[in-house]
Write a structure and sequence with these properties.
Number of helices: 2
Number of domains: 1
Strand content: 35-45%
CATH architecture: 6 Propeller
Helix content: under 10%
Shape: globular
Largest sheet: 4 strands, antiparallel
Strand order of the largest sheet: 1-9-8-7
Radius of gyration: 20 Å
CATH class: Mainly Beta
CATH superfamily: TolB, C-terminal domain
Amino acid sequence: MNALKTVRGPAAWMIGAALLIAPPAFAQMSPLDRSNPAGSGQDTNLKPHATPSTVTPVEKIPLDKVRLPNGFKAEIWSHGHPGGRTMVRGDKGTVFMGTRLIGRVYAITDRDGKREVKTLLSGLTQPNGLAFRNGSLYVLAINRVLRYDNIEDKLDNPDGKLYIQVGAPCNICEVNPGLHAQIRRYNADGTGMEIMARGVRNTVGFDWHPVTGELWFTDNGRDWAGDFGPQDELNRLQRGLEGGNFGFPYCHAEGIPDPQVRVPNACAGVIKPAALIGPHAGALGLVFYTGSMFPAEYRNSAFVVRRGSWNRAQKFGYDVAVAVARPDGTADVQPFLSGLLDTQKNEFFGRPTYALQMPDGALLVSDEFNGAIYRISYAK
């Protein structure tokens, strides 16, 4: 394999914008931030849950707790990759996984029915974003974009361009709408930047509807505004509304003005979400299902992976939901994978983060907390 390369030239401006992205735990300490934990009515001792940096023994992975609809089955497809989150698959079957705080990118190969895990990259700053283009693996690592040549695949979007989210540099603050809290689109060489959506606080998962071709994406709601919201969002970018405003920092969810960053008519002209997906749910991965293994009612529906809350006394999420688009552009959200949260004891056993559809129609779901991937299959 060829060596890693930093994307230079026109892409350098894009990298510079990414320098100002911060993870939620650190972003809230930004001098720009206008959070008011003491005034939120919440327990101010709440803090993000630590992700284990060591391998979870396979016998301790809580597969027995996973609950699915009738006919579905969960099994451990791979393990031994601590902190693994995002997943993309190459044409030859290699599954690449990004991480956040652990700073690694893994490559998982299938050898005679057994998965082998290799640490492909290490020592990076939050290499959570992965994409492919013409055989090259692109790794977005906060302060730089790396390209690993001659890997396997292509970008998985309808127009062959690279979509990047530039998040807010805070939990809640005023932002430059030309720089932060947006989804951008680039040519593969870094030229031709377009802002596709504004007012997007922090999206990790987005995908294109298989029928309409419209972009759908999750957005994590702000913290320290109460246990019950504002809720995370499932958004839809309608054709003709490219560059539209989705509300941050002034307006949240289905029309909630922000209590700290106030402006008149805060929600005027804001594109409302297709669905709300729970308070502090940590909605990350999103993938539309196009396979034939699952029952027909799942086809063209979106699986939304919810990592789970930290800024909430009663934990929420730690699951996978399925969103079915309605004719009016909204969506109906129902549970799919559950069991990793004990609501009675208020404790969790795993943190699903991302989903990837396999060629046979099975669905892979990564569990960052246990360093595992679950394979979800269906049989009548």
